[in-house]
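Figure 6 in text form: structure in, sequence out.
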């Protein structure tokens, strides 16, 4: 396993996108097999990785830049501009969605009203159903909730370039 760990680092914006693709299909497969909690857990990470990718790209990162150096400046920026939004150990989907919106506004690259409302709705939905703490959850997630989460994550996935370009 150490050989695998050696190739995993450093994490980059590109690795977030590639991992998100893998985890999206893993989540769908788990859902199809009735493994709803695992599907929801992975789906949330897909959204998290894609939103983080957008944030780092908006901040000017190249796809191969190591992300470990990006978190400090990104979090400092957020503390000044979004002090009431909690990052929840850097895993909050709401935090990262708000970060993208705020950064785009500062860059003068506002989303269209419809796109902005779609992003807010989907981030709100995911905020209600997903938490990194699902990793400790033994309760089976309701299929209806997981299906909606997969739809919301699929929207983020299909619009991931529009989040930062």
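Output sequence:
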């Amino acid at each position: 396993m150490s050989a695998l760990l050696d190739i995993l680092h450093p994490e980059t914006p590109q690795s977030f996108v590639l991992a998100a693709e893998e985890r999206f299909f893993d989540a769908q497969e788990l859902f199809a097999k009735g493994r709803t909690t695992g599907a929801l857990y992975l789906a949330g990470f897909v959204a998290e990785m894609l939103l983080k990718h957008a944030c780092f790209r908006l901040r000017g990162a190249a796809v191969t830049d190591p992300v470990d150096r990006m978190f400090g400046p990104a979090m400092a920026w957020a503390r000044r501009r979004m002090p009431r939004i909690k990052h929840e150990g850097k895993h909050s989907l709401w935090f990262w969605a708000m970060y993208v919106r705020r950064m785009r506004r500062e860059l003068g690259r506002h989303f269209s009203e419809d796109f902005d409302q779609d992003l807010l709705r989907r981030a709100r939905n995911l905020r209600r159903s997903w938490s990194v703490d699902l990793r400790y959850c033994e309760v089976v997630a309701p299929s209806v909730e997981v299906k909606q989460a997969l739809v919301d994550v699929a929207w983020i996935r299909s619009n991931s370039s529009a989040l930062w370009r």
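Caption detail: The radius of gyration is 16 Å.
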